[in-house]
Amino acid sequence: MSDFEFLSPDDKPALLAVNSADLKAQAEAILMGLGYKVHSIATHDEFLSKFQQANYEILIIELPFAGSTGVQDNETLKTIQGMSMNARRHCTVFLIGEPFQSLHPMEAFQQSVHAVVNPNELADFESILQKVIGENELFLKAFKDVQMQMAKGEL
Fold it and tell me: Which end of the chain is more exposed for a tag (fewer CB within 10 A), N or C?
């Protein structure tokens, strides 16, 4: 992605914080097929810059991203965990890592993400993405509707 790539109001941006070339290619293909404009980053500093510039709808973090070895030293994950809900409500966050059982709700809650995915289950990654994105959109629908009405001055 170019540093100057334009995002229009109709775009659905997704951000990939992954090291694995195979995972990156798979996630890009799936997300582009679902209509997302995909941006990839390689460092935590890039994450900080990009995440502040746009309301990404999807964030996929690979546990060993940018040299981290696990949950304790993944700076991108720690930054997400420390953000207020207002700063990250617009984004569905996926965490991919060996120690997780895919779609385990307590593990996701413990990591402050929407879903955890074990790399061994990436064959079903498209259905996992669609399921979690759909559930999050349904969960936040009433909130987003009221927010839109307030922005239009209808409330």
Answer: C
